[in-house]
Design brief:
By secondary structure, the protein is an alpha+beta fold. The chain folds into 2 domains: 250 residues, Zn peptidases (Aminopeptidase), CATH 3.40.630.10; 108 residues, 2-Layer Sandwich (Alpha-Beta Plaits). Helix content is 32%, strand content 29%. It contains 10 helices and 18 strands. Strands 1, 2, 3, 6, 7, 8, 14, 15 and 16 form a 9-stranded mixed β-sheet that branches. It is elongated, with a radius of gyration of 24 Å. The two termini are 16 Å apart. Belongs to the peptidase M42 family.
Length: 365
């Protein structure tokens, strides 16, 4: 079967290669060489050039039987992600405490490599598989947003980038919108003629207090996270800037939030204010039924592994959101990483190994 020791060594080697977002070049070159040594055809797209990075997305192709499935992971990490020094402690792989570990998402990539190495050594028959390794996932899924669709034929896929333990299948994820709002009042001297001014900070505060924030319902959240305004205590402020977001598993709920948001903004005009609003959709949500084949296929594998299956949802985004928007029915799969994006990030050796076994059995069909 798979070699646990080799898998651990591969993972430790991978996390030592820095691959901050849009600086994945060294890691991408290493991975491309590794995949080609394993007999796969590898193609790099021009997403890096589009985004100003030093590597594109990688596509690797394993010949086999039947219609292809897609298996995906991202190559980039967050900061601090340079000079990572991994070690084993109490059954977990951790960093030395000065950096992240990089299990997000190099645990998945090392598991893919180990699965492919084992298949090659055993000369096993496989199904046809396309692999996608994206750049810039951590800065807004930008690599996936610039995928070359012509290089992917799969209609179903698996993104291995979930925090849940092996057996966790994320079938729903939200639509995520962001707002950039500037409220304009009128400046005046706060001491001699405050009545001539229109205080943009107070207007924005009143607006915020009259809108629903936090957990709006079980599957919807709203947050304002940035606010800037004012120049001096003796000036009635004429401008304030705000940034925030909406997320919901129900896209219609996002639409109703925007309606309420803009309706309340218009009320400021009656008080002499003006505003400028820019809306941005970061990604669309997805929802996959448990009876779809993409789910049933991986559930069969997990059942054969003796793993408890947990079908769940997330309020975060992943490359699975983008792939679903392309019409590729894709779920996000838990790989057991913990405390991602922190210096306390870790993954258990058992979860790392189980991820490799899961991928191995998916590839074998």
């Amino acid at each position: 079967m798979l070699s646990k020791d080799r898998l651990i060594n591969t993972f430790m080697d991978l996390v030592k290669i820095s691959s901050l977002s849009l600086k994945e070049g060294d890691f991408s070159s290493f991975l491309k060489s590794k995949l080609e040594d394993l007999g796969l055809r590898v193609v790099e797209d021009n997403a890096g050039k589009i985004l100003g990075g030093n590597s594109g997305n990688l596509y690797a192709y394993l010949e086999g039987d039947g219609d292809p499935i897609l298996i995906s992971a991202h190559m980039d990490t967050v900061s601090p992600g340079e000079n990572i020094s991994p070690k084993i402690a109490n059954g977990y792989i951790v960093s030395d405490g000065n950096t992240i570990l990089g299990a997000d998402d190099k645990a998945a990539i090392s598991a893919i490599i180990e699965a492919l190495q084992t298949i090659r050594e055993r000369s096993e028959k496989t199904r046809r598989v396309e692999f996608l390794f994206t750049i810039g996932e951590e800065i807004g899924l930008v690599g996936a947003k610039n995928v070359d669709h012509s290089l992917i034929k799969s209609q179903e896929g698996y993104v291995f980038d979930g925090e849940g333990k092996v057996g966790t299948l994320i079938l729903r994820a939200p639509t995520h919108d962001r707002f950039y709002l500037t409220v304009y009042g009128r400046a005046s001297h706060a001491g001699t003629s405050p009545e001539k001014g229109i205080n943009a900070i107070l207007l924005a505060s009143e607006f915020l207090l009259n809108f629903s924030w936090g957990r709006v319902d079980d599957f919807t959240t709203a947050n304002v996270g940035v606010i800037r305004g004012g120049r001096a205590t003796n000036i009635v402020p004429d401008e304030v800037y705000l940034e925030g977001e909406f997320r919901s598993l129900n896209e219609d709920r996002i639409y109703s939030l925007w309606q309420e948001f803009e309706e309340k903004l218009r009320k400021m005009i009656e008080k002499g204010a003006k505003y400028d609003l820019r809306k941005e959709n970061l990604y669309k949500g997805f929802s996959i039924d448990e009876n779809e084949e993409v789910v049933k296929r991986i559930v069969r594998v997990l059942n054969n592994m003796g793993k408890k299956v947990e079908l769940t949802y997330t309020m975060g985004g992943s490359d699975a959101n983008i792939l679903n928007s392309y019409g590729i029915r894709t779920i996000n799969v838990g790989i057991g990483m913990e405390n991602a994006h922190s210096k306390e990030e870790r993954i258990s050796i058992d979860n790392l190994y189980d991820t490799a076994v899961l991928i191995y059995n998916l590839i074998r069909g």
